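User: Just a sanity check before I run the rest of the batch. Below are the structure tokens for the first item. I only need the designed sequence back.
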């Protein structure tokens, strides 16, 4: 069935109205971003002082934190938009309409694009003037890293919603820690070579690891491995497709077995 733009826009518009009419939701989008950038910004400044060299930790460490935080915001943008429908007991109502699964997922992704982009803009606005971070020293590669991380973040967001859709609203706590379980293998704070051999094998399956390794390579040696990046991008796209198929299959399962009614009341 062909997706209709007006239905996708309706899903997105509902989320924007929720944010606009509730300052606490708006506050939640930006407050943790501000806290993360400020804390890690001062940590990098402290490391610069201790190292007492011309080398700056800001692009290497703070830049990585901003990229990783962006991925978390993308994942949570999809996930929170879904949770809003669950918390308001509106999820069942949506699928009593002609709205399709693909249109609903697309609406969640559009919402995530807007909220995560706003968050990224704030992070760069703070990190640039205050801590001297200029991510554009990465050149055009900056956009490539953003693309890879965004695709993987969307995949994680859809995967997270699938878990809650299958297990019920009470399984929400399973979705929140997912990025933090991946972080040790994503090579955010340290090179892949720092990890033990068995962990390095796992890292090969994590798309952001290729991005962060590539970013470090550019900053430290001025080189960039196109092949490594393409592997990471391909993995991210595969995970996105698998996550979407998982959501569709899960939706059909809960619909067939009558489990969708759990989302009309918070009793499960």
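Assistant: Here's the designed sequence for the first item:
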């Amino acid at each position: 069935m062909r997706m209709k733009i007006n239905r996708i826009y309706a899903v997105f518009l509902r989320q924007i109205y929720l944010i606009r009419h509730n300052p606490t939701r708006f506050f939640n989008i930006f407050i943790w971003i501000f806290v993360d950038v400020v804390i890690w910004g001062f940590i990098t400044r402290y490391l610069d002082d201790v190292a007492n060299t011309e080398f700056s930790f800001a692009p290497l460490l703070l830049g990585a934190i901003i990229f990783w935080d962006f991925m978390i915001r993308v994942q949570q943008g999809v996930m929170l938009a879904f949770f809003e429908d669950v918390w308001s007991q509106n999820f069942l109502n949506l699928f009593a309409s002609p709205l399709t699964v693909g249109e609903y997922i697309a609406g969640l992704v559009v919402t995530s694009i807007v909220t995560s982009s706003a968050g990224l803009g704030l992070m760069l606005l703070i990190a640039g003037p205050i801590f001297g971070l200029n991510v554009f020293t990465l050149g055009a590669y900056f956009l490539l890293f953003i693309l890879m991380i965004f695709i993987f973040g969307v995949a994680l967001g859809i995967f997270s919603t699938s878990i809650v859709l299958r297990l019920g609203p009470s399984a929400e706590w399973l979705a929140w820690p997912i990025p933090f379980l991946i972080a040790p293998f994503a090579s955010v704070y340290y090179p892949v070579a720092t990890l033990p051999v068995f962990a390095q094998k796992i890292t090969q399956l994590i798309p952001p690891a290729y991005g962060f390794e590539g970013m470090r390579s550019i900053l430290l040696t001025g080189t960039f491995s196109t092949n490594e990046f393409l592997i990471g991008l391909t993995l991210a796209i595969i995970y996105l497709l698998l996550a979407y198929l998982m959501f569709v299959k899960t939706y059909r399962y809960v619909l067939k077995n009558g489990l969708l009614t759990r989302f009309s009341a918070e009793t499960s």
